[in-house]
C-alpha cells in the first residue's frame, strides 16, 4: 500500500519535527549499510575460516561494489512500483539472507560468498542507500548538502563503529556467529526505517526554502533534460567518478594488508586502527564536503575531492617505494577523505542538475560510476599486481594515472556545467 501522497501539505513545524527524526534514524540505518565497506576486516577471518586465499576473496569486494551500484538503480524502479516501506523491506530481507547465507554455507564453495556477500548483502545496501538518501534528502531543500553529508557520514562510519565491533565479536565468538548476529541486526534496523520514513509533502520548498521561490528558482534543475542518462555532461562526470572511485576502492579493499605490507610485522597492530581511522575520515568528509557544497558550489566541492585524491595517490606510491608507514597512513587518510566526498558530489549533481522529481533515478544513474570504478580498480590490480592484491608499488603507480584522469574529468565537467548555469 502506498504511503502518504506527495501533495499532502504540512506546516513548517511539522516538517522540521519529521525531517529531524528521519535524518536521525536514517543516519543510524546507514551505519548498518556501511558494513559493506568493512570487507578488509572480514576477509582475513573468512580466509582462515574457509581456507580460501585472500586474492580469491578480494574479488568479493569488487563484486559487492558492482552490485551495490546496480541495485541502487533497481531500488529507484522498485520504489516507483512499491512504497518506501516495501522497498526497504526488500533490502531488510536481502541483508539478512546475505549475512546468514555467508555464515551457513560459505565453507561449501567460494561462489557462495560471492553470491551471498558480494551480491545479496551489496544489493540490500544499494537499495537501502538509494531509497534513504533520495527520499530523506528531499525533506531538506534548504540543506541538501548537509543532510546528504550527515547520512553518508553514517554510511562511511559503519566500517569503523560496527566494523570494529564486529572485529571484536569475531575474535570472541568467531566469524560464523558474528555474521548471524549481523543478519538479525540488519533486518531489524531496516524494518524500523521501513515503518518510519514517509514521502516529503508538496509544499516542502515553500515552507523550508522560500528564498528559492523568491528568487524564482523553486526547485528547478540546472539541466533541462530531466534524466542524467540523456545528458552529455554525464560522460564528463563519469570520467571523474569512475577514476576517483577506482582509486578509493583500491585502498579500501586492501587497507589492512596494505598497512602490514608497508610497515611490516611491527605495524600489524596498527593496521586495524588504520582501517578504523580510514572509515572515520571517509564518513566525516561526507559532512565536510556536503557543508562546502552548501556554502560554495558543486564545482568547488568537485575540485577539492579530485585534488585530494591525486595528492593521496602520489603519497601512497611514495609510501610503498620508501616503506614508510607514517606516509602510508597520512596519504591513506587523505584518499579516504577524497573518496568520502564522492557520494556527496554525486548526490548534489543529481539533485541540483536534474531536480527533485527525478532525483532517485538520477542518483542511481550517477552512482553507476561505482560499478565501473570497481571494474577499473580490479583491472588495475589484476594487471599491475603479481598476486592479485593491491599491496604492491606498481599498483599505486597506476593509480596515480587514474587519479590524474579524474582531475581532468573535473576540468571538462566544469566547463560544460558552467555553460548550463
Layout of strands and helices, then pairs:
Blueprint (H helix, E strand, L loop, with lengths): L11 H22 L5 H12 L3 H28 L2 H22 L4 H28 L6 H30 L1 H22 L7 H5 L1 H5 L18 H20 L2 H9 L4 H28 L2 H25 L2 H30 L4 H8 L2 H16 L8 H28 L1
Helix pairs in contact: 1-5, 1-6, 1-7, 2-3, 2-6, 3-5, 3-15, 3-16, 4-5, 4-7, 5-6, 5-15, 6-7, 6-12, 6-14, 10-13, 10-14, 10-16, 10-17, 11-12, 11-14, 12-13, 12-14, 13-14, 13-17, 14-15, 16-17
- How many helices? The count is 17
Main sheet characteristics:
none
Please tell me what the overall shape is: globular
Shape-level CATH architecture of the largest domain: Up-down Bundle
The name of the CATH superfamily of the largest domain reads MFS general substrate transporter like domains
Report the sheet-strand fraction: under 5%
Helical percentage: over 70%
Spans of at least 5 consecutive residues with low confidence: none
The number of distinct structural domains comes to 2
Number of strands: 0
Succession of helices and strands: HHHHHHHHHHHHHHHHH
Short description:
With 421 residues, the chain is mainly α. Helix content is 80%, strand content 0%.
Characterization of this structure:
The protein is an all-alpha fold and 421 residues long. It folds into two domains: 1-213, Growth Hormone, Chain: A (Up-down Bundle), CATH 1.20.1250; 221-421, Up-down Bundle (Growth Hormone, Chain: A). 80% of the residues lie in helices and 0% in strands. It is built from 17 helices and no strands. The chain has helices spanning 12-33, 39-50, 54-81, 84-105, 110-137, 144-173, 175-196, 204-208, 210-214, 233-252, 255-263, 268-295, 298-322, 325-354, 359-366, 369-384, 393-420. Helix 2 crosses helix 3, helix 5 (110-137) runs antiparallel to helix 6 (144-173) and helix 11 packs antiparallel against helix 14. The radius of gyration is 21 Å and the shape is globular. The model has no long low-confidence stretch (mean pLDDT 88).
Amino acid at each position: 500500500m502506498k504511503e502518504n501522497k506527495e501533495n499532502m501539505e504540512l506546516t513548517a513545524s511539522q516538517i522540521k519535527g519529521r525531517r529531524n527524526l528521519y535524518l536521525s534514524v536514517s543516519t543510524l540505518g546507514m551505519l548498518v549499510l556501511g558494513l559493506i565497506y568493512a570487507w578488509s576486516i572480514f576477509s582475513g577471518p573468512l580466509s582462515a575460516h574457509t581456507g580460501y586465499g585472500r586474492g580469491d576473496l578480494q574479488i568479493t569486494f569488487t563484486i559487492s561494489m558492482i552490485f551495490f551500484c546496480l541495485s541502487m538503480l533497481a531500488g529507484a524502479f522498485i520504489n516507483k512500483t512499491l512504497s518506501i516501506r516495501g522497498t526497504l523491506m526488500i533490502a531488510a530481507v536481502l541483508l539478512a539472507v546475505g549475512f546468514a547465507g555467508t555464515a551457513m554455507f560459505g565453507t561449501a564453495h567460494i561462489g557462495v560468498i560471492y553470491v551471498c556477500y558480494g551480491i545479496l548483502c551489496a544489493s540490500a545496501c544499494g537499495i537501502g542507500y538509494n531509497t534513504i538518501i533520495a527520499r530523506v534528502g528531499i525533506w531538506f531543500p534548504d540543506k541538501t548538502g548537509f543532510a546528504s553529508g550527515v547520512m553518508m557520514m553514517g554510511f562511511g562510519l559503519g566500517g569503523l563503529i560496527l566494523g570494529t565491533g564486529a572485529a571484536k565479536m569475531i575474535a570472541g565468538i568467531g566469524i560464523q556467529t558474528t555474521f548471524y548476529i549481523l543478519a538479525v541486526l540488519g533486518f531489524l534496523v531496516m524494518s524500523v526505517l521501513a515503518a518510519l520514513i514517509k514521502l516529503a509533502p508538496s509544499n516542502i520548498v515553500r515552507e523550508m526554502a522560500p528564498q528559492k521561490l523568491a528568487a524564482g528558482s523553486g526547485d528547478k534543475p540546472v539541466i533541462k533534460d530531466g534524466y542524467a542518462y540523456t545528458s552529455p555532461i554525464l560522460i564528463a562526470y563519469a570520467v571523474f567518478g569512475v577514476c576517483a572511485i577506482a582509486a578509493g576502492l583500491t585502498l579500501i579493499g586492501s587497507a589492512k594488508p596494505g598497512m602490514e605490507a608497508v610497515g611490516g610485522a611491527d605495524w600489524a597492530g596498527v593496521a586495524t586502527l588504520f582501517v578504523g581511522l580510514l572509515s572515520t575520515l571517509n564518513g566525516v568528509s561526507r559532512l565536510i564536503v556536503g557543508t562546502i557544497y552548501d556554502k560554495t558550489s558543486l564545482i568547488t566541492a568537485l575540485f577539492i575531492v579530485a585534488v585530494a585524491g591525486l595528492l593521496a595517490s602520489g603519497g601512497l606510491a611514495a609510501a610503498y617505494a620508501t616503506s614508510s608507514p607514517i606516509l602510508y597512513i597520512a596519504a591513506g587518510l587523505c584518499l579516504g577523505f577524497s573518496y568520502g566526498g564522492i557520494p556527496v558530489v554525486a548526490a548534489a549533481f543529481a539533485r541540483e542538475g536534474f531536480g527533485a522529481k527525478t532525483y532517485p533515478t538520477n542518483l542511481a544513474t550517477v552512482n553507476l560510476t561505482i560499478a565501473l570504478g570497481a571494474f577499473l580498480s580490479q583491472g588495475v590490480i589484476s594487471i599491475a599486481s603479481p598476486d592479485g592484491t593491491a599491496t604492491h608499488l606498481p599498483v599505486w603507480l597506476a593509480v596515480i594515472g587514474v587519479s590524474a584522469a579524474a582531475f581532468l574529468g573535473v576540468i571538462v565537467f566544469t566547463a560544460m556545467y558552467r555553460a548550463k548555469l
